Amino acid sequence: MNERPKLGAGRIAVLVLRYLLAVFFLGAAVNKWRQQYITTDRLSQIFMQRLEEIDPESFGAWFIENIGLPHYQPLAWLVCWGETLIAAGLLFGFMTRSAAAGAMLMMFSFAIGGYYDASLIVLALMFLPFVIWPTGRWHGLDAKMHARYPNLWMFR
Questions:
Q1: Cβ density class 144-156: b for 16+ within 10 Å, e for less
Q2: Of 85, 110, 142, 149, which sees the most CB atoms within 10 A?
Q3: Which tens digit of pLDDT belongs to each residue from 22-57?
Q4: Among 42, 9, 4, 1, which residue's Cα sits nearest to residue 134?
Q5: Does residue 113 lie within any of the structural domains?
Q6: 140, 94, 100, 139: which is closest to 123 by C-alpha?
Q7: What does the mean pLDDT of the chain come to?
Q8: What's the pLDDT tens digit per position in 53-78?
Q9: In Å, how far from its chain's centre is CA 108?
Q10: Averaged pLDDT for residues 76-99
Q11: What is the pLDDT of residue 121?
Q12: How many domains does the chain have?
């Protein structure tokens, strides 16, 4: 009754993409931890540098001046832990849809917050299949968690 679906070429390709994006996020998280974002003013320095590079009349400049710089410590915490948890969720197939939605939100937030680059939008959209399809149930802990807790939205 609760059989795992067969993994055809299409599903395998989607899973490979999931793992590649998980490794991408893991690398980004490791980089932030190594640079000690949480315990130093590294993110504040990055915001100041970015502020010098962008149009002072842009929304990104407003965001950095009014949100980023005054709140760089909580933002650093959110970025470090967010990237770490997203990577873990995608790697282990645990709360995969939530992890993918978090990744999309993070990419859009970076784009809005002064780091606009067209590639961020494309990168954010690459997580959409993991929000739509239950890839964590194809291969990951979501399958076990869904069997145990079938009514919880987190594992669907």
A1: ebbeeeeeeeebe
A2: 142
A3: 999 999 999 999 999 999 999 999 999 989 988 899
A4: 4
A5: yes
A6: 100
A7: 90
A8: 888 998 889 999 999 999 999 999 99
A9: 10
A10: 96
A11: 85
A12: 1
Residue 133 has pLDDT above 70, yes or no: yes
Residue 13 lies in a domain: no
The DSSP line for 96-151 is HHHHHHHHHHHHHHHHHTT---HHHHHHHHTTHHHHHS-HHHHSSHHHHHHHH-TT
Q: What average pLDDT score do residues 2-8 get?
A: 67
pLDDT at 5: 64
Range of the domain at 24: 18-155
C-alpha triplet 15, 5, 23: angle, nearest 5°: 15
Residue 139 has pLDDT above 60, yes or no: yes
Task: Fill in the amino acid letter for 107.
Answer: M
Q: Tell me the CA distances in angstroms from 118 to 52, 53, 122, one per residue in order.
A: 20, 17, 7
How far is residue 151's CA from residue 156's CA, in Å, rounded to a whole number?
A: 8
* Conformational region of residue 149, where left means phi above 0, alpha means psi within -120 to 50, and beta covers everything else: beta
> Does the residue 3 lie in any domain?
no
- How many angstroms separate the CA atoms of 37 and 26, rounded? 15
Supply the pLDDT for residue 60. Answer: 87
Residue 95 DSSP SS3: coil
Q: Which of 45, 17, 31, 49 is nearest to 131 (CA)?
A: 17
